[in-house]
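Example 496.
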Amino acid sequence: RGEQVACTIHATEDGGKISRHLYGHFAEHLGRCVYDGIWVGEDSDIPNKNGVRTDIIDALKAIKIPNLRWPGGCFADDYHWRDGIGPVEERPKRINIHWGQEVETNAFGTHEFLNLCEELGAEPYLAGNVGSGTPQELRDWVEYITYDGDSELANLRRSHGREKPWKLKYLGVGNENWGCGGDMRPEYYADLYRRYAMFCRDFSGNELYRVACGPSGFDKNWNQVVMQRAHRQMQGYSLHYYTLAAPWSDKRPATGFDEEAWFSILRDSLQMRRAIHEAEDAMDPVDPDKRIGLIVDEWGTWYRGEPGTPGYALYQQNTLRDALVAGLTLHIFHENNERVVMANLAQTVNVLQALILTDGPKMALTPTYHVLDLFKVHHDAKRLPVDVGAVDYKYRDQKIPAISVSASTKEAGVIDVSIVNTHAREAVSVSFDLDGATAKEVTSKVLNAEELDAHNTFDEPGRLQPKAFDGARIVDGDVKVDMPPRSIVVIALRLD
Ligand code: AHR
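Predicted structure in complex with alpha-L-arabinofuranose:
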């Protein structure tokens, strides 16, 4: 049973809402995420709906995907939306300058993306082009999409088959403008942000939520300058934090690793907390009421590309370790739900910490996908504060907490709890006191495996998936859970 730890779930307290938007996703024109991933085209032999793979539509609906960010990433700041509307055969071919200089056909454009979001029931989140675009281009995109009246742009939309405008709430004003989005200083970006935001208007009852570009990781100066100069003009502020535990120039492999690599990746994923707090340090003084939402619109693991795939395609396997990174990170978002209102895992299909991998007609759901599926019980639920007793996972001279817990309720008499055991080798026995409630029934599922790098393949897509779990039980109204090493458990408690 390993070490023991006691936790208290404050069943009658209100820790605020866990927005379902913390469970958002991101699809960029990069490698095989959009083309040959999500989008195969209507003429493909692969079953599709309006060009989008039906197996992917079904998988994303099953996890109740709340929002989808598009078209980048770095791609966004060199994307010109007019290239992606109108008859497909007339759309210009462009070079994707950021990702391998591949030829971008523009077959997947504004209509294809927004129709996909409608099909999925997901809110679209557009990243606008500030780097190589103009305020007019971005303001026109908003009009084309959202205006219901008689204007040239609204009529152009109609001529392309869409009579009614779409609703568009989330609008990113640039992406990583300190880097691939224009290599700007924060002073310059803050001024540009104000200029662009001013021209992006609300039309026909649509209300934009404008998101300013935030830092990579822990960049205090970017946070301070952009917040001081532009906080009044923004509704959201973005943050990117990737887990590498390695230099950018020499990333780690996604599989075939030892315990050092397991520990290091999990340890670095916990730095998300620091990145959030650094952003908050700049936000709180100018926005003490937390009007501005922090949007972690890129997060996840970043490894070396799989052998035989181009480095710029960012195609990597996804293992049990990634599943734990997802669990730990989602718990950090829950904890910070007063400020963090949305997040987007990078990326949805075939890129970085993907939910789904494809190979021609084959597809595999990754361990990360299964975490997003198990954790959907927390969508829009009320967070219940949890005190977690101290129990460490020690590796050589370092340590991280072995146990991470989050609890929520959305239905009277039911509490959902997710638990992560980061320890590579040891079980931990966790007991929960429900402080104000008594449990009478428990059901649970587990995601775990023998090997640290357990993963799904196209030949064995169901190798790692959640199973029924018999290690959770009720003892005198409290709950005991025997957490296997390297595991994620989700339990549903029915109360007395
Ligand atoms: O997600 C891959 C890339 O990572 C994005 O294009 C960019 O915003 C970030 O650097």
